[in-house]
Design brief:
212 residues, alpha/beta, Multidrug-efflux Transporter Regulator, Chain: A, Domain 2, Rossmann fold, Helix Hairpins, four-stranded parallel β-sheet, three-stranded antiparallel β-sheet, 10 helices, 7 strands, 56% helix, DNA-binding, DNA binding, SSR_resolvase, IS607_transposase-like
């Protein structure tokens, strides 16, 4: 059975831009007709919602949530870490009877305060139309200052729910990557792009020597 785009938007209670972003991220794959119109497999929609064609009553009984996924580097994104992280969070949401309104994904350092997806997330929280923000670990939201973000969310009737405790080895590795990113950024300002690449290569070499 296939659904039209209009039926999918109504079923998932999302906007068209959100659906198109999910398509770009590979969370759902439409079938294109000769006319150019999209059709969606019903089983794919059921997988995202964790139910069969939500009725208004069924939808209202679910907690409304959004998902925030983040990795620090393009390499992590290219190897599928970001996609797998999002999929784990969607599975958790389905298992806990949460209604996913939107997925925010980002490739950025955890100490970057100007993350666009995080800013869009905070704007949505301020409207007080969601109940839960799902993230894998606390430091996916912020490496430092997580408590302030958590307090802000609670002031707008939203809880942050982290589904796992991060392994210390993984945490240390990501902190090293974040520090390299910060140093590279400052080096680019001081010495230009060529100098920044040289500094980054030296830092990466030192990091590898430490792990040997």
């Amino acid at each position: 059975m296939f659904l039209t785009q209009k039926e999918v938007l109504k079923t998932l209670n999302i906007t068209r831009p959100t659906l198109l972003r999910w398509e770009e991220k590979g969370l759902i794959s439409p079938i294109f007709l000769d006319s150019g119109h999209r059709r969606y497999r019903k089983e794919d929609i059921d997988r995202l919602t964790g139910s069969v064609m939500l009725s208004e009553a069924g939808s209202s009984s679910k907690k409304k949530c959004v998902i925030y996924s983040r990795v620090s580097t393009k390499k992590q994104q290219e190897t599928g870490n970001l996609k797998r992280q999002t999929e784990r969070l969607i599975e958790y949401a389905n298992a806990n009877n949460y209604h996913v309104l939107e997925v925010f994904e980002e490739v950025a350092s955890g100490i970057n305060e100007n993350r666009r997806a995080l800013q869009r997330l905070m704007k949505k929280v301020s409207k007080e139309d969601i109940e839960v923000v799902l993230a894998e670990y606390k430091d996916r939201i912020a490496r430092f200052g997580y408590e302030y973000i958590e307090r802000y969310c609670k002031s707008h009737k939203t809880n942050i729910e982290c589904i796992e405790e991060q392994d210390e080895k993984d945490l240390n590795q990501e902190m090293v990557e974040d520090m390299i990113s910060v140093i590279t950024s400052f080096s680019a300002r001081l010495y230009g792009q060529r100098g920044a690449r040289k500094v980054k290569n030296q830092l990466n070499r030192l990091e590898k020597e430490e792990t040997i």
